[in-house]
Amino acid sequence: MGEFVARLFYPAARRGDVVEDLFGFLVPDPYRWLEDGDDTSVRDWAAAQDRLFHTNRAGWCDKQSWASSVDQMSSFGVSEPPLVRGSVMFLAEQLRGDEQLRLLVVDAEGNRRVLVDPVEIDPSGHTGLYAWWPSRDGERVAVQMEVAEQPGSDILVLDVRTGEVVDGPLPRARNTSLAWLPGGDAFYYVSRVPDEEPAPGDMRLHRRVRLHRIGSPWQADTVVFGGDDAPDHYYGLTVSADGRYLAVTATVGPASDNDVHVAELIDPEAPDFVKIVDGRTLGARVLPRFLADGDLLLVTDYQAPCGRVCTAHRRDSDPAAWRTLVAEDPQAPLDECLVLDDPSLPRPLLLVARTRHGASTLTLHDLADGRLLTALPLPGAGVVSSLRTNIPHGRHAWFSYCDATTPPTVYRYDAASGKTEQEAGATTAGHTPEIRSHSVRYEAGDGTEITLFLFTPAEDHQGPRPTLLYGYGSFGMPMRPWFFPLAAAWVGAGGTYAVACVRGGGEEGQHWHDAGRGPHKHRAVSDFNDAATWLIDTGRTTRDQLAIFGQSAGGLLVTAAATQRPDLYAAVIAEAPLCDMVRYEHFGLGCTWTDEFGTASESEQLQWLLAYSPYHNVASGASYPAFLFTGAVTDLQTGEAHVTKMCAALQHATSSDRPILMRREPDTAHAAFPASKERALIVDILAFAGKYTGLSPEETTTRLHETAAESH
């Protein structure tokens, strides 16, 4: 399995004597000093870790083969459905070799031209196209760029015909929502208060909803919603087609419930809001959109954990008065829906996307009474996402489809003819391997059945395979059988890629999320270890062939799983993870995530956190698997201290000769990597996992090239 690094080569990290008394619990924090990334000793230690990583990486002999495989599996082209406004179509495209997405416009005659190319703005490739919001007539578009390492980014308004900037920049629009008023001369948007107002180091959001009129300075934008009493709120904005009504959803951090406020826009500068949904009282999520008559279509999990579609009067604050249009299906959580109401159609329609056992379904309903009209055929048992239609009135529905072997492909459904046709799509540079995908159910320790997606090579093979197990298990985010170049490359090399749909995600609806958050977060971790145990016990892999991988909150999942059961795993890859769950609220946006994890400022909740916090459960002398921590040097979401503190703690504790490594990425953020850096990271993850599980792509890469040559 190659040479491993002995413990004595780890950079020296002093163990401090910080011990906090929290509600009578003595909580040691020996690496508190590593939280100060500007300190010279921290920078020197991190630089030594960089050298250690690069020395180790030099010994990963399959790196070039993995790079070739990832290049073959990476997809490019158009992967998202278009936004269609009036006669103009807005498309995002990323061609092979591009570092970032570019924004195209297509006119009524089918002429395509580039409207925004981020690399022209920033040749380094570190500025990405984050979001774009065309006006209803397609004459203007508000564009937001994301710049690595910056906590907020500007909004620019472009003239679609000329490409010229007609307004902006509007600053500090992080995680914003934007809704144009008819006519294209004004919009509502969300931005943080001016930088000088929050206290230094205050990472809370402090957002406000503002009205901006094209041509006026942003300082004159009227605040129409939000205040000092809501420092951690996210806002979503929706304006009715006729511009008479505005709906604002308000969510505390990533909480699973939200408020809904509706106003009639008699004076757009001073909307008079009526609170029609109190999320805390209902304990539910309610997403509104306006129907043609000004009433509301509500997508909600209130009294329906897997989601239902209702209609309500815009001032109806009593959920008992809501009328169910499409009822809950307890076996198929609701993903999204779309109204098709073009006057040329015989009747207004509702398109509904659900997920049944990991595979998407699309059904068409009568908007008047919700009755099922037909099910739309799909290319396979894959994932449908991003339903979109023409604005102001929809006749076509665009959606993206992908599965384990199919990169995202855009389809268009014509509600007048009833036909669905492929319109655009992403392709891969080479031939994707034949992948056999199926889902199984395994039993968690408490008897709960949990779905596990398995992706294996098509050829028959008896006996265990090197396996890469992935999970997330937070914020109600469901795992799906997406197309993922990393997974395709791993399976193409002869391995098994597995995805565990642990509690805390949204695979089975809201109750599945609730069963794995707050006081129950430990269940997500034990569910994941139970998935690993099942893979081993059924002979699909062995402990020496099993690696685990998670990103962000999934990095927390795999790191916690490995500190609880280090004996189960050969290798662990944690990308931008949370590790110190006692102090996570002090880093990045952690203070907004207490609804998901709990807070260390309350005695009972501190005990939830201490029970699984990876940093606090590192055991001296334990034989830990190989660890690779990856992350941005400047991570404004989770904060870099999680990685540095956890790495130091494991290096000090482990009795194993398998290395504990840290791969730091300068000049990037939590997301929005340039494409080349994203591919380089995937290659390093695969090379690391392959080295410590015994998977080599050498023979498979040769075979794939031969197959490709024969087919030409």
What topology does this entry show?
Layout: E1 19-22, E2 25-28, H1 40-57, H2 63-73, E3 75-77, E4 83-85, E5 88-93, E6 102-106, E7 112-116, H3 118-121, E8 127-134, E9 140-147, E10 155-159, E11 165-170, E12 178-180, E13 186-192, E14 207-213, E15 222-225, E16 233-239, E17 245-252, E18 259-264, E19 272-277, H4 279-282, E20 286-290, E21 296-300, E22 308-312, E23 323-326, E24 334-340, E25 349-356, E26 359-366, E27 372-376, E28 383-391, E29 396-403, E30 406-414, E31 419-428, E32 435-443, E33 449-457, E34 467-470, H5 485-492, E35 496-500, H6 510-514, H7 521-537, E36 546-551, H8 553-564, E37 571-575, H9 594-597, H10 603-612, E38 626-632, H11 641-653, E39 660-665, H12 675-693, H13 698-711
Parallel strand pairs: 4-28, 34-35, 34-36, 36-37, 37-38, 38-39
Antiparallel strand pairs: 1-2, 3-31, 4-5, 5-6, 6-7, 8-9, 9-10, 10-11, 12-13, 13-14, 14-15, 16-17, 17-18, 18-19, 20-21, 21-22, 22-23, 24-25, 25-26, 26-27, 28-29, 29-30, 30-31, 32-33, 33-35
